[in-house]
Amino acid sequence: AGGVDAPVVEETVSTADGVEIEVAANIGGEAELDPAVARGADGIGLFRSEFLFLDRESPPDEAEQYDAITTALAAFPDDRVVVRTLDIGGDKAVPYLDLPEETNPFLGQRGIRLSLGAHSDLFETQLRALLRAAASEHGDDLAVMFPMATQIEEVAAAIERVESVAADLDGEGVDYAMPELGVMIETPAAAFLADSLAERLDFLSIGTNDLTQYVMAVDRENDAVADYHDPLHPAVLRAIDRTVSAADGNDAWVGMCGEMAGDPDLTALLVGLGLDELSMSAVTVPAVKQQVQETATSAARDLADDALACETRAEVLDVLDES
Ligand code: PEP
Ligand code: MG
Q1: What is the ipTM score, two decimals?
Q2: Whose CA is nearest to atom 4 of ligand 1?
Q3: Is 257 in the active site?
Q4: C-alpha 287 – ligand 2 centre gap (Å)
Q5: Which residues have CB under 6 Å of ligand 1?
Q6: pLDDT at 2
Q7: What pLDDT shows up at residue 218?
Q8: Could you say which of 257, 261, 280, 288 is catalytic?
Q9: 266 and 213 Cβ atoms separated by less than 8 Å
Q10: Which pLDDT value is given to residue 106?
């Protein structure tokens, strides 16, 4: 499985029995846009907006962020572009923000916690740029998602901020539109609350890098315990399954944008688990598209059911080997 020489397919692909799966790209810098287009990505499933804030001395202003977002939208004029709001803290330090040192940064002020707390100013500027970009030429497929959520109140507060920014723009007579809104499922709390989250939002996007870290209580950067950081652990698979069911039951779409999504050996499993979109480093897009086309959903569902019934990671690996 998973040929590295898979052909580039520009259009969205379907499974052998006709279920469309979006295969999108993760973007961590403007230079990654052209290669993602060249590899046939169906839009952007994760635009890591924090790259706009790194390696510089002050944050980008609204105009610079608007330019970066509209550039990404223009690269994929007919496809969805999902921009994640600022996800700093944890492994993503930004020196000029002067955040206090933390003993456990991965358990500290990151993502939406900062956007609603110490850096609500940056959040507001970012939301202004995003809502304006949603009204730009290719903006109707813009989607915005919030990282590191653990509480319903956070998501409610984030939605309120979006609405208040919209009201401000309205008052100023500035053109804006409402993008689709979603949340990343990357904490156990979010996975357990996925139902309530999906009820309030248009989509969920599973970040398996962090979700695995937090479900398994394992530092994603610590090589000594790297074995524990495996999304094939049954606990992580069940968290994914729970999230997909919550989205399906609430009319939300569900994607995956962690590393797991880009492993062509896992495409059949992920199709079977019911993901609507897989987003990954552009380099693996052709191989994953090829796997989608070779997968039949009924067999994939059986495979997922078998994997979900496993009690150990070793059993999951056996199930995958036998498939
Ligand atoms: C994830 O956590 O899986 C994810 C996609 O976000 P990041 O790797 O940027 O934390
Ligand atoms: Mg993450």
Answers
A1: 0.99
A2: 207
A3: yes
A4: 23
A5: 46, 48, 186, 207-210, 257-258
A6: 47
A7: 97
A8: 257
A9: no
A10: 93
Closest CA to 244 of 212, 211, 273, 215: 273
Which candidate, 83, 75, 78, places its Cα nearest to that of 130? 83
280, two tokens? 């990954």
Q: CA–CA separation, 321 vs 70, rounded Å?
A: 43
Cα dihedral sign, 27-283-2-18: positive
What are the residues whose beta carbons fall under 8 Å from the beta carbon of 84, sequence distance 6 or more?
46, 47, 48, 49, 144, 145, 146, 147, 184
Return binding residues. Answer: 48, 84, 186, 209-210, 220
Tell me the chain's radius of gyration from C-alpha atoms. Answer: 19
Chain centroid to CA 275: how far?
A: 12
**Stretch 180-196: mean pLDDT:** 98
CA distances (Å), origin 244, targets 80, 113, 221: 20, 24, 27
Instruction: Determine the distance separating the centroid of ligand 2 and the alpha carbon of 186, expressed in angstroms.
Output: 6
Q: pLDDT at position 97, please?
A: 87
DSSP class of 206: E
- Condensed to tens digits (0 to 9), the pLDDT of residues 84-116 reads 999 998 667 788 888 888 999 999 999 999 999
